[in-house]
Amino acid sequence: MAFVKDMLRMWAHSWKRFISIAMITLLGVAVLTGIYAGCRDAFRSTDRFFDAQGLHDVQVLSTAGLSNGDIAALRKVNGVAKVQAERSQEVTFDLDGRKSATMQEIGTNGIDQPYLQEGRMPKKAGEIAVTRKFIRDSGKHIGSRLTVTPESASSDTSDTSDTNGADGTNETNGTDEAPSFPTKLTIVGVVLDPQNLSNPDGYSAMTSFRSTATTDYTFFAPSDGVTGTLCTSATLLVKGAAAESTFDESYENTVKQVTDRIDGTVKTDRQKARRQELLDAGNRKIADARAEADKKFADAQSQIDANRQQFNQQVDQIVSMQAGAATAGAAANGANAGAAAAAGATTPQLDETTRETMRETIIAASPELTQAKQQLDQAQSQLNEQKASTEQTLKTKENELKTSIPQVRWYVQDRQSLGGFSALKSDLDSIQSLGNAFPIVFLLVAVMMSLTAMARMVEEDRSLIGTYVGLGYGRLAVASRYLLFALLACLIGGGLGLIAGFLGIPAFLLVVLQGMYVMPGLRLEYDWLYGSLGIALFVVGVLAATIYACVQEMRQTPAALMRPKAPRAGSRILLERIRPVWNRIGFLGKVTARNIFRFKSRLIMTVGGVAGCTALIVCGLAINDTVADLGIKQYRDIYQYDLMVVSDDSDADEMRTKVASDGRVTSSLDVRIESGDLTVAGSGDGDSGKAGSSGSESIQLVAVPEKHLSDLGEMVTLQPVSSGILGTSGVGKTGSLKLDDDGVIVAQSAASALGVKAGSKVRLTNGDGVQATAKVGAVNRNLIGSDVYVSETYYAKLFDSKDAKNTKNSKSSEDSEALTWNAMLAKLSGSDTSQTDYAESLEEDSSVVKAVSCAHMADSFKFDLMGAVVALIVALAGGLALVVLFTLANTNVSERVREMATLKVLGFFDREVHHYVNREMMILTVMGVILGLPLGRLVGGMLTMALNMPSLYFEVEVKPLSYVIAAVATMAFALLVQLFVNPVLDRIDPISSLKSVE
Q1: pLDDT averaged over the chain?
Q2: Quick one: which of 231, 345, 556, 896 has the fewest CB in 10 Å?
Q3: What number of H helices and E strands is found in the chain?
Q4: What is the 3-state secondary structure (H, E, C) of 790-801?
Q5: pTM for this entry
Q6: Smallest Cα–Cα separation from 873: which of 930, 954, 939, 938?
Q7: What per-residue confidence (pLDDT) applies to 568?
Q8: Torsion angle (degrees, nearest 10) of CA 908, 914, 917, 921
Q9: Residue 853 bridge partners (DSSP)
Q10: CA 379 to chain centre
Q11: For residue 195, which phi and psi values (nearest 5 degrees)?
Q12: In whole angstroms, what is the distance from residue 811 CA to residue 798 CA?
């Protein structure tokens, strides 16, 4: 009992150490669990929401629309749970200018169901539900009416159906019509689109680098009132996918098995079948046109024949009359009366030659008959010409049919292709990677501080330890006094850390996240396993340090432990050997130098602890500086052009004419821009290179005209880069990189994510889904987006040659066409504001699909979530620095109580004692800061490498101000600690402190 009371008394006496260990554990556990818990809560709530709304696992798109046969084939794929045919239509309306929207049919099979926020779901024709973004932008409300106009060519699907017009299914012979929605609409509800969780009322996290949205808004309508049998897409749910977390690799593997099956057989077969259906439909149209033409020609020929027969009868009658008159005259001039009577009673018999001669004579003698015969001959000639022309036209159509109907392309996409999903996932993944790295530094600092505190605590009680051991107490029982002390501190600190980690930090992160995304049903959850392991990790580290301290002392005999520890033997420090410097240092300066360098453990612990905390602060600020400069570096340094304009292929000439006529362009470069994929060659099969799969990156493929390859360097800064270590990279001289016909230039952001370098082989997928293996000629410095530059000649070699991969989708040689330059990179005159306004005005033009102003992108680029997390990390690092300095300062004072008492006996005033002790701490703090600043840059490079986000490369940047802030903050914490230490120094009693231990 006395042993326990003494232990409790000892614990109460060491309350400062207890608080220090508890605070370090609290901060470490909070960092370890807080960021993880915040991201996990967001992941889980979003996954629940996706499952509840039936967000599709796979989406299938086709350039020719999807027929009933396509839908039936998808239902037969092994692993598919549900298939829902989707119908949509693009419309326009007037809202402070021309705006576009996608009319989306609400599926009846439970897939991609919008989440109702206000009002009710639409049920009747003409009723719609809109997103909150539309309500905010338009100022409309539930009950408002809206009139829309269908796009004249809303999609490739409608174009195909309008052109070919035939149902390609094997089941029916009807006509596939493009979807059509009512145009007079009434708003009855406000919904959240599960495919896009962006919060329109909050601040934007980070605008997409290349917006894939073709319309401004989405309107949801019921099936009532929707006509047309052709589907614009098909959405699928995969068996077993709902049981997995949508953000886990297991989910991706489950979905990938189904997408691979679709890509493997169904896709190829249905592409061929659908094209054959379109060909058959075209042939049927030609056959119908031929039959109709033949019928019309037959009717016309019958009419001409009837008129000619009537004409011939009239002429023959005249011939007969003239022949009869001639015979009668001959009989009157000498023939007998009987012969004349016989001749008058019968028609004269004429041979064919005579009759034809008489016909021609009669027709020539009569203008009316001549005109009639000419009209009949002219009608027959025209009919013959029409027959020949129609037949030639139909034969030409038959010959052109195969080339006029392009190869049908299927695009099989998973959730990664959804901009809202991928943005949320990349944001959370990046923050979670920080949460996995920072606790390591906290744990190392916690172990160091615990070792320092517990070693001093054990050393102070060495005589008591020797006494207990001498009285027969076991060494384990004696050590338990300190082990239980450390354990209790860890458990209390860890418990408070769990509260902060599963409640405080997640609440902060989720407030920030909810300003960027709408996540219904979000709630804070506790993870018993992860929380217990988080505390256990720090408990093991701190107890290991305590055990080490106990073992170091208790391996001595009780007699040795009960005697005072012998002072260390005097030794010279290195500075003493530098006589010119040493001789000029004052007495107190020499004492300070000896105290600093002779006590190596104190030096290492103090400098290491301060360096670690400073490094954490620098690291957080480095991430903030890196992210803050991304937009400026990309859109003002790397991109030298001011404007990028993209159009459809059919509108390319009109777009260039429009831009040229405005007179704002000082120089320009026509290019072709396509959305594609880049996959590391050999990382998968030929069809695996799609966004979101392993070893794949979404890219923007930029083809440059052969005659203007040298002009690319005037629009984009071309600098070769080579991968470095710890977030660094070697950047070559500006202008030293040239685009040629031997390889492609890959953006650094994509190359870093896939481990690609100059000379590597990669598989490129162009906008038509054609794949080819290409050589990487160089890696270009690029931070935002994943651009791949290719020359016109090399593009043709890759995607038009027989060597191109995925030959089932490759163009044949007769189908190959010259590239259409559907985009323009231009330099503009005027201010940044005028350039931004000009880009916005261009987007309202019907020939322009997208117009991007680099000035606007540079000013609007933000990464608010990262900034909030960096602020949290810097605050926690500052708290750790304060605790570390407090622990070290108190340990330093407790070790030197007799020394401080001696100084007081020698006549030192309190202020002089303060200065004597604090000077050493400030020098050690400065040394730690000097070491921590480059260490923070090093750790910052490592962490930015861990932030491997799609289409982003973090080029580590630490501004001088950040170094100053880190250094000043650490020194300020050191000065703050002095305010707590000075009263402790004042309370030292020289008489009691100098009493002999024996």
Answers
A1: 80
A2: 345
A3: 31, 23
A4: EEHHHHHHHHCC
A5: 0.72
A6: 939
A7: 66
A8: -160
A9: 643
A10: 68
A11: -80, -10
A12: 11
